[in-house]
Every structure is written in structure tokens, then in C-alpha cells.
Design goal:
By secondary structure, the protein is of the alpha/beta class. Helix content is 44%, strand content 11%. It is globular, with a radius of gyration of 22 Å. It binds pyridoxal-5'-phosphate.
């Protein structure tokens, strides 16, 4: 493989990394390249499952049954239209699984309608934007520094829909939406849609009040539950549809612990109809059809174990926050609370900043990510003052409050005590080895 393409829009580090890979693989046969790709996947899998504390919020480990279904031959089948009335033949079992997936997702979230074919949370958001807005319409969403997701922003799905995007006024230091200012702004620039929900989501939102403001100007409310879907499913987080959102989207593979994908939930038939059209024929033909059986399993596991899982996530987050504070780390949050859920943010501006901290933790096999904190200016996106982390994956491995105290110590070893990285890594691997199997799921089928 030779590097003759113009990629001047890439970052320097990305160009250098790409060059190293291409140099290392130059001259390999097709068979050797295929073997290498498979080995890379095995090594990444070994790292993530056996050698690391995976605490990146936007990911999860899948149950054995869900994982196995993702390798099914059904994956590569186009499946257009509604189950029972597809344009393709030969899919009768997959069609049944699709009905089950939607039905079980409705049951988990107590919603009337579930769209389960979106390939990601961003696509689920895109489907809602397509259904509820026209190009040029005004929307309100949380800005990126205060945690808003790019699919709510100009550079993401909302921008691709040509929407006029206004920032929801936010009190960065108190982690609160400023409701009075929001009301005034919404009356000055009446929106079609208000989006709440974020990537940095530590606290519940005053959804009832936001819905009341939306009603004053006839706007829809979308709650993006990408990160908190698992907590909502387990009854440990505010229920968006019960508290006023007209529609809720989520990623299915973060705290929810299902296959990669997105869902849209609503009790409103008109919204469901518009989303259905946006997904097909709007955006998909093959939606990785095997995901339907996998999502049905994940939803069934959530019905069986979700309450226990969500409670354990919240307890672990509280224990970890206490551990961080006892170690002298600066846990971001309100004066009286660091989180209502499974996610935490550390202000590491005095320990070298978010980029340094995330890289140093990675060296020690602790995976989290650098993140803007609400008071950071957007230009600091490559070196923000925070790191963001969550406990749902380590909770699924069976870890509890006792382990959270140890993990807080490992963070402090890296960020405060600057203990040898090899020593911390050794402790991480030993800790992980004590938790070899997954909880809150059904055992692998015989
Ligand atoms: C709030 C929010 N919405 C949507 C998404 C997009 O999800 P996906 O990665 O499934 O497209 C994310 C991703 O992290 C997110 O944080």
C-alpha cells in the first residue's frame, strides 16, 4: 500500500500514525494482511476484556448471547419495509426477531412505539430531526462545552438538516439549565424543537419545566438518552416520556449494553410514522439485520436484570466519587453531588489537563476520555480541563463499592502520586483477573 493521497485535513498525529501502519504493512501478501487484521481484532479484544479497566462512558461489554448474535450471517441481509411485508423474501425468522426487538424495547421503556432500525444514536437523532423539522427551522440544544452532542450541533446532524441552532442557556458552575433565560430566548426565537440530553450527563434535567416552556410556543421536546438509556431502563433515572418529552432517542450500546445501534421511542403515532419513513426509505436498506435478535436479547436481559444493574451502577458511581475525594482528586459537579447516575467527571486542570491525564491513564490500562468541562472554552477541545468516565462496564464485570475505592487509588497513583506506570498496570490487570465473567445477563446458550 502506498501513500499517495492528499489528507492535509488530517491532524499531524493521525498522518504520522497512518504512515507507521502503512510502512509496517508494505509488501505483505493479501493473506498476511487478512491475518494481521484478525490478529489486531483479537489483541484489542484481549486488551479490553482482560487487561484494562474500560471506563469510557460511550461503550459497554456485551453479554455472551448478544455478542454471539453480532457474528450471525443475518448481518449482511437487506431487509426493507415492515416485518411481514418486506420487499425481500427469505427473511421470515429475521422478521419475527424484528417484531420481538421492537416489542421488548417498548416493554423495557414503557413506550407505545419503538423504532429499532437506526444504525446509531446519531442516526436516530437524524430521523427525529427529519420527522419534526424543516430546513431553516429553529431548534434549541445544549452546546458542546456544556455536554451537548455534535448531532445536536451545526457540525453534526442538526447542521446537516440546515437548522438554526440556539444554545440552551446554562449555568456552567451550577450545572443547571437557566429556565427563565430559556423561556425568554424561546419566546424571542420560537423553535420547532428543544433537545435535551448530552454526552456529559451527570444530572437529571428539569424536564417538566422545559416541556411547559415548549408548550408555550408549540415546540416539540426531544430527550437524547444516548448515555443514560440503561439507567432509564432500570428505573434509576428520570423517565423522559413520563416527564414531558414527546420523543426519546438513545444509543443501544452504551449503558444499555446492547448491540451497536440507535432507538427512537415515543407515545405519539404521528412522530412514530415520520421517524419510520425517515429510517426507511430515508436512511437504510440493510440495517445490519442480525442486530434485531441481538437487541431483543439485550432488552430481555434488561427486563430480567435492569433494576439491579442500574442500581449497582449508581451505587458504584457514588462510591467511586467518594474514593476520588478521599484521594484528593477534584471531582467536578454540584456543591452537594457529583452525579445522579453512572458517569463522573474529574477536573484535572492541576494534574496536567485532560489530554495528559487520559493518555497517562491509558498507559496504565485505565480507559476514559478527555472532556471539556462546562466552563471550558470550545477551542480547548484537544486539551480540556476534564476527563469523563463511567462505571457501567466495570459494574457488568461484577465490581462493587470495594473495588471502586481501589480504582480511585489507581487513578490517584497515576495522576497525583505519579507511581510507576508498570506497577499500576500490574494492579489493573490483577484486579481485572478477579472478575472474569459478566453479570446482569443470561448465560451463553448450550
Ligand atoms: C448525547 C449523545 N447523543 C448521541 C450520540 C451518538 O450516538 P452514536 O455513537 O450511537 O451515534 C452520542 C454519542 O456518544 C451522545 O453522547
Amino acid at each position: 500500500m502506498t501513500d499517495t493521497v492528499d489528507l492535509t485535513w488530517y491532524e499531524e498525529e493521525a498522518l504520522a500514525f497512518r504512515k507507521r501502519v502503512l510502512d509496517r504493512t508494505a509488501g505483505l501478501s493479501e493473506r498476511a494482511l487478512a491475518d494481521l487484521a484478525a490478529r489486531l481484532d483479537r489483541e484489542e479484544t484481549e486488551f479490553l476484556t482482560r487487561e484494562a479497566l474500560a471506563m469510557y462512558p460511550g461503550a459497554n461489554i456485551l453479554s455472551p448471547r448478544v455478542q454471539r448474535l453480532l457474528g450471525s450471517v443475518v448481518a449482511s441481509r437487506a431487509s426493507e419495509g415492515h416485518p411481514g411485508a418486506k420487499y425481500q423474501t427469505g427473511l421470515r425468522w429475521a422478521e419475527e426477531a424484528e417484531v420481538l426487538a421492537a416489542e421488548l424495547i417498548c416493554r423495557v421503556f414503557g413506550a407505545k412505539y419503538a423504532e429499532v432500525r437506526a444504525l446509531s444514536g446519531s442516526m436516530a437523532n437524524m430521523a427525529v430531526l427529519n420527522s419534526l423539522t424543516e430546513p431553516g427551522d429553529t431548534i434549541f440544544s445544549l452546546s458542546t462545552p456544556v455536554g451537548g452532542h455534535i448531532s445536536h450541533a451545526k457540525i453534526g446532524a442538526a447542521g446537516y438538516r440546515w437548522l438554526d441552532i440556539h444554545a440552551i442557556p446554562y449555568d456552567a458552575h451550577n450545572w443547571e439549565i437557566k429556565l427563565d433565560e430559556l423561556r425568554a430566548e424561546v419566546h424571542a426565537h420560537p423553535p420547532k424543537l428543544i433537545i435535551v440530553g448530552a454526552s456529559l450527563i451527570l444530572f437529571e434535567y428539569p424536564l417538566r419545566e422545559i416541556r411547559a416552556i415548549a408548550d408555550e410556543v408549540g415546540a416539540w421536546v426531544l430527550y437524547d438518552a444516548a448515555h443514560v438509556a440503561g439507567l432509564i431502563a432500570g428505573g434509576a433515572w428520570q423517565h423522559p416520556l413520563r416527564e414531558g418529552a414527546h420523543v426519546m432517542t438513545a444509543s443501544t450500546y452504551k449503558s444499555f449494553g446492547g448491540p451497536p445501534g440507535g432507538i427512537v421511542l415515543t407515545d405519539d403515532a404521528e412522530i412514530a410514522r415520520g421517524v419510520d419513513r425517515a429510517i426507511f426509505p430515508g436512511m437504510t436498506a440493510n440495517y445490519h439485520t442480525n442486530r434485531m435478535a441481538a437487541l431483543a436479547v439485550a432488552a430481555a436481559e434488561m427486563l430480567a436484570f435492569g433494576r439491579e444493574y442500574a442500581r449497582a451502577c449508581c451505587d458504584n458511581a457514588q462510591a467511586l466519587a467518594s474514593g476520588f475525594r478521599a484521594e484528593g482528586l477534584n471531582v467536578a459537579g454540584k456543591s452537594h453531588a457529583c452525579t445522579d447516575g453512572h458517569m463522573l467527571a474529574l477536573d484535572v486542570s492541576e494534574q496536567g489537563g485532560g489530554a495528559y491525564a487520559a493518555a497517562a491513564l491509558e498507559e496504565a490500562h485505565i480507559i476514559c476520555n478527555m472532556n471539556l468541562l462546562p466552563w471550558d472554552p470550545p477551542r480547548r477541545v484537544r486539551n480540556p480541563s476534564g476527563v469523563r468516565l463511567a462505571v457501567h462496564e466495570i459494574t457488568r464485570w461484577g465490581m462493587g463499592p470495594g473495588e471502586m475505592a481501589r480504582i480511585a487509588g489507581l487513578f490517584a497513583d497515576v495522576l497525583l502520586r505519579r507511581r510507576s506506570v508498570e506497577a499500576v498496570r500490574g494492579d489493573v490487570i490483577a484486579l481485572k483477573a478477579a472478575f472474569p465473567s459478566l453479570h446482569y445477563c443470561f448465560p451463553e446458550e448450550e
